[in-house]
Write a structure and sequence with these properties.
The chain is α+β, with helices and mostly antiparallel strands and about 170 residues long. It contains 5 helices and 6 strands, in the order H-H-H-E-H-E-E-H-E-E-E. Strand 2 and strand 3 form a beta hairpin.
Length: about 170
């Protein structure tokens, strides 16, 4: 038996989680529109979203942008072997580039990873070369894992109640 209380979402929570996986309306008050679809008030929706966030069920809500339609045709995932004492310094340099969507730390020889996107391969290589120069790494030091083909960009998990009080995705 767990020493920690387990959060058990109810049917309204599950409906909210399902709704968050759909396209959010591009309107002044998207939460009001979603709440109306669910048959609840905007205040109730926002309170439940706050609780789902506190319970770490929802980590964040963000757009998924189709980069090719914006003229961004090259992307790669880069891993650097950054010594522990330089992680913050190197991450700050990398985070300063608008072509970098995010970076993250891993407990591995390759301790700092980041995604890099640009309008084409030449522009991407130019930014990467500048990052490597500023951080003191060479091409031989890094893992460069370019995007070859986008396989899947839309994953949804329909949620249902189960008898044991938890929840799971259904097919």
């Amino acid at each position: 038996m767990s020493r920690f209380p387990v959060f058990v979402p109810d049917q309204t929570d599950l409906a909210i989680l399902n709704a968050l996986q759909d396209d959010l309306p591009i309107v002044t008050r998207p939460w009001e529109v979603i709440a109306a679809r669910l048959g609840i008030s905007e205040a109730v929706l926002l309170e439940r979203l706050d609780r789902l966030s506190r319970e770490k069920i929802v980590r964040g809500i963000s757009p998924i942008i189709e980069s090719r339609s914006l003229g961004i045709t090259a992307a790669t995932l880069i891993a650097l072997p950054v010594p522990e004492e330089k992680i913050r310094e190197v991450a700050e340099i990398i985070s300063g580039y608008p072509e970098v969507s995010h970076n993250f730390r891993r407990d591995n020889r390759f301790s700092l990873w980041f995604t890099l996107s640009a309008k084409d391969a030449a522009a991407l290589q130019k930014v990467l070369d500048e990052i490597l120069e500023r951080t003191g790494f060479s091409r031989d030091d890094i893992l460069d894992l370019p995007t070859v083909q986008k396989i899947k960009i839309d994953v949804r998990f329909p949620l249902t109640r189960v008898r044991n009080g938890g929840f799971h995705g259904s097919a």
